[in-house]
UniProtKB/TrEMBL annotation:
The keyword tRNA-binding does not apply. Residues 64-355 form the Transglycosylase SLT domain. Residues 1-32 form the signal peptide. It comes from Pseudomonas psychrophila. This is Membrane-bound lytic murein transglycosylase B. SUPFAM superfamilies: Lysozyme-like, PGBD-like. The keyword Signal applies. Keywords: Signal. Residues 376-430 form the Peptidoglycan binding-like domain. InterPro entries: Lysozyme-like_dom_sf, MltB-like, MltB_2, Peptidoglycan-bd-like, PGBD-like_sf, PGBDSf, SLT_2.
Length: 434
């Protein structure tokens, strides 16, 4: 049930705490939970901006594109793709430089999570979602019955992934994936997606020409990557084709099928906002630390009245902007959403948007808007300084993963600060001055 408008808090102290980082520049690394599944959508720039970026330089591959294509053709045919399907799909295919550019772009600035949520939960999107819930009520009932996934979250994912089908991407999926397989940063991943894409075409679900998607190969109203499509796309409208591009019924049911497989529990909340007591051990706000809601309550975590019934559910504590910002307990359904796109800011947006359709999903605590996320170069500097001071932050790659969070906590503990693992400016400045 959604966190209601009314303030259902037992009043006491409300010092928030934190440790899970949301400002990861790209979702390649887990940000919240320990879920390690294959995301449905490719690494998404959930919290990045298109502002200045340091691009990874383009390196001309050793082989030409046509040499690569000839080698890959052998591989594809070995995987069961017919020569006709392959040759038709690859007719006139050349590398797409815009895909290379997007793949190699490393944005310097991250959008703060509160700005990301403002965009994701815009009043217009909420209104459109409400309208579509009404228009598709009968369809959504049948999908709920079949897959046991709540309609609000399906429409929320639909809104987040493609703005309800209106932004699906208009690049040739074969061309994008061929480009990434030829010279991208993760060629093996792109090759396996490309084989899947060819299989989808071979099965007759869609033609190569009409198989359009994002630069990273995410397709249709659900933005499924080809391997996820192969395993989870369904033909729900019964026309014999799985058409996540043109059929909302197929797209929504495919989303439901994937969330069901990811462990969605019908009728359970994704999570809820909580308040933490003074002196709370912020190091517990770590995706690896799971406790029942009741156990969190015993530690002094204040939960809203609307969480009633969730006491025995397994939860982790999420602090998207460090201990100074809002705190959330997140449950299995949050982890199911993370399997769609492994970014905790994305999962938070999906959860909150699904509640906004019913007038809920408002966050009570204030965001620390005076503390902008560190830029990419500042994150690299922070990691370097931490490691220099014997707090092993792993590779200085600008990605705040588990190692870096652990190093930040150790440094915070040594200074007697709240150990929320959050990369703040204050921490960076403190390390610089030592
Ligand atoms: Ca269909």
């Amino acid at each position: 049930m959604p966190l209601s408008h009314k303030r259902g808090w037992p009043m006491r102290q409300l010092i928030a705490a934190s440790s899970v980082i949301l400002l990861v520049a790209c979702a390649e690394k887990p940000t919240a939970a320990d879920a390690q599944p294959l995301p449905v959508t490719p690494p998404a720039p959930a919290v990045t901006t298109s502002a200045p970026s340091t691009d990874i330089p383009f390196v001309q591959p050793a082989q030409s594109f046509s040499e690569w294509q000839a080698n890959f053709r052998v591989q594809a045919l070995n995987a069961g793709i017919s020569p006709q399907v392959f040759d038709n799909a690859f007719a006139d295919i050349t590398p797409d430089m815009s895909v290379i550019k997007a793949d190699r772009s490393q944005p310097e600035f991250s959008r703060p999570v509160w700005e990301y949520l403002d965009g994701a939960l815009s009043p217009l999107r909420v209104r459109n979602g409400q309208r579509l819930l009404e228009q598709n009520a009968e369809l959504l009932s049948r999908i709920e019955q079949r897959y046991g996934v709540d309609r609000q979250v399906l429409v929320s994912v639909w809104g987040m992934e493609s703005n309800f089908g209106s932004f699906q991407g208009n690049k040739s999926v074969i061309r994008s994936l061929a480009t990434l397989a030829y010279e991208g940063r993760r060629p093996e991943f792109a090759q396996s997606q490309l084989i899947s894409a060819l299989k989808i075409i071979q099965q007759g679900d869609i033609s190569a020409e009409k198989m359009l998607g994002s630069w990273a190969g995410a397709m249709g109203q659900t933005q499924f990557i080809p391997t996820t499509y192969e395993t989870h796309a369904v033909d729900f409208d019964g026309d014999g084709r799985r058409d996540i591009w043109n059929s909302s019924a197929d797209a929504l049911a495919s989303t439901a099928h994937y969330l069901q497989s990811s462990g969605w529990k019908q009728g359970q909340p994704w999570g809820f906002e909580v308040m933490l007591p003074a002196g709370f051990d912020y190091a517990l706000a770590d995706g690896a630390v799971k406790k029942t809601v009741a156990e969190w309550q015993q530690l002094g975590v204040l939960v809203p009245d609307t969480s009633s019934g969730s006491e025995q559910l397994s939860a982790t504590l999420l602090l998207p902007a460090g201990y100074r910002g809002p705190a959330f307990l997140v449950l299995d359904n949050f982890r199911a959403i993370l399997r769609y796109n492994n970014s905790s800011s994305y999962a938070l947006a999906v959860g909150l948007l699904s509640q906004r359709f019913n007038g809920g999903g408002n966050i009570m605590a204030a965001w620390p808007k005076d503390d902008r996320p560190l830029s990419r170069s500042e994150r690299v500097e922070l990691q370097t300084l931490l490691s220099e001071r014997n707090y092993d932050a792993g590779n200085a790659d600008g990605i705040i993963g588990a190692n870096t969070r652990k190093a930040i906590r150790s440094a915070q503990q040594a200074m007697g600060w709240p150990a929320d693992g959050y990369p703040s400016h204050k921490l960076l400045e403190s390390l610089r001055s030592r």
